[in-house]
């Protein structure tokens, strides 16, 4: 973008520099047949060079150092001095050369021939003071040059500030997400180690297998979740490993149903969004003696992901988000607001002996 802007400015300056030739009523070859008209064109080119110099000076020095730093009085003073100098030089140059042409086909001679040069008024090169139409035209041109370069500088600065603001916001959100992810790790580890301790106390043959599964889960958490997004297939595999680990301690009266439908390969999501809900399902949805059911379903379409997690509740159980493990649910809610603003729906409910989590995410490919 910077190179494009630079080339565009150079092209504009070149066109402006050659504008006396481009706007001449004669072709370049015809114009150079008349020495006096050559002088007029060269004088106008010199004036344009001065205006380009004013443009660059204002673009690189005046506006960045004075106007953009709230030094408007100094800016106006320097600008006025430049304007006076420019008008003096402009008047001097244009008084040195008088255009022999009012235009093609006009004048006192035959069509297409120049009229005789007008005599210079008495009083030397400053005789007759100034040509007011020319003065006003050049004044307007000068102001347009200054205004356009100042607007360009101020616009650049505003865009730079906006980019900086967005970068700061991005870094802030990224830091907040990192903190939230770090909260999940000890919460997850605490719950999982409790399960392994239970197996160890019973001297279960599954203890070693549980440790291996935990190692795989921790590997995922350490290496994968550093990324902002992970393949949905990896997240599902992670959930399946966690469910397998939890099932090692469950009795026959506890039924766990996991179902996935859709194409997981086409999508990626932010990591560890579902695990707090699943943790709570195993923590609050399993009874030592009564029949318990846990249902976890994931359905993926081209544009949406639907996650449903239901578990049995037992006499007066407190909703997880209000209980001791509420940090996990609150964590997910914050992350959803940051990851999927206005692109998610989350509802928590308790009805007919079941506690349910219903989450819908609007997906983008990739």
From TrEMBL:
UniProt superkingdom: Bacteria
Q: Which GO terms describe its molecular function?
A: phosphorelay sensor kinase activity
* Organism of provenance: Dyadobacter jejuensis
Question: What is the designated name of this protein?
Answer: Histidine kinase
Q: Which parts of the chain span the membrane according to its record?
A: 41-63, 75-94, 135-155
Q: Name one Pfam family in it.
A: His_kinase
User: Does the keyword field hold Zinc?
Assistant: no
Q: Where is the Signal transduction histidine kinase internal region domain?
A: 175-251
Keyword Transmembrane included in the entry's annotation:
yes
- Keyword terms, alphabetized: Kinase, Membrane, Transferase, Transmembrane, Transmembrane helix
Show the InterPro entries listed in the entry. Bact_2-comp_sensor_kinase, HATPase_C_sf, Sig_transdc_His_kin_internal
What's a single GO CC term here?
membrane
